[in-house]
Amino acid sequence: MTDMEEPEDFIQQTVQKFIEYNGGDATSYEGELVTQIIETALKLLTEKHDLGQLKVISRAIKEMRYAYRVFNNYKTGPCISIFGSARTPEDHPDYQMAKEFSAAIAREGWMCITGAANGIMKACVEGPEKENSFGLSIRLPFETPTNTVIEGDPKLIYFRFFFTRKLMFMSHSQAMAAFPGGYGTMDEVFEMLTLIQTGKSNIIPIVLLEGENGAYWKEWQTYVTKQLLQNQWLSPEDESLFYIASSPDDGVKHILKFYSRYHSSRYVKDLLVLRLLRPLTPKQVKLLNDEFKRLVVKGSIEAVSPLEGETDHLELPRLAFEHTRRDFALLRQMIDRINDFE
After folding, report:
1. What is the pTM of this model?
2. Which domain holds residue 10?
3. 104 pLDDT exceeds 90?
4. How far from chain centre, in Å, is Cα 235?
């Protein structure tokens, strides 16, 4: 470093040279993000973080990098995360239902992501077979971390932290299914519902299933209705964020219908853009404006061409409007309405 250089400039230039040395382009947006990651890591040395905090940060980054690399190597189709108890015996109706459901959704070209343990997770690897499955294993002192079906598979990923494991479930899933389980299952279900309800995650179908003659989800829904909805801790449309399926085929049909016309969405500056597989008629767009005007800050819902700044799925028709960035359960109902149009 010369006498004329500021320390921050010297560090940034050194980091950029290091990125170039490792085959990256420091001037690209990707290079800028990696530069920020490295600069953030260097600040840990001067901000008096203790050893335990440094270990958590280091381990979390390593887990995320490795997990993303594994998923990036197997981008073969949409993924569904499936949750449920690791203690469900193999002769239980829930186990058989999970096996049938995972096999049925795999036949539609979907990959299944499970926790890789026994019980429901083992059933959901046996159903589609491990070629169509990811296993996200968490090390626990009291349960077998990995079932024998997916053990040794290159799509099996081990985690120390629940939060990095959850991130992989959430960020790679176009749907979620849950079977009866304990605290862990409830944690996953309520977290996904919360993320969608608050707009922190993409809206995806959430399907709840169980074996024949089971009452787990019906009683759960009764609790949600009596304690959460009736106390006004939920909005009435929030119950649209989940669907209790009557059978494996019913669960699969619900998921496939969600993507029958709707494709995906993203924000472009102030506008929410809904990408569709087939365009809507002017009459249908008008109906959306009449029924869902609560979602619009100003202006109206309009059919548009790809907006400046969009880079993917440019061939798809679109709807765009200035969204209130709230009432995401009502937005889910609007997606259902779009899929219901003939």
Report:
1. 0.92
2. 1-48
3. yes
4. 22
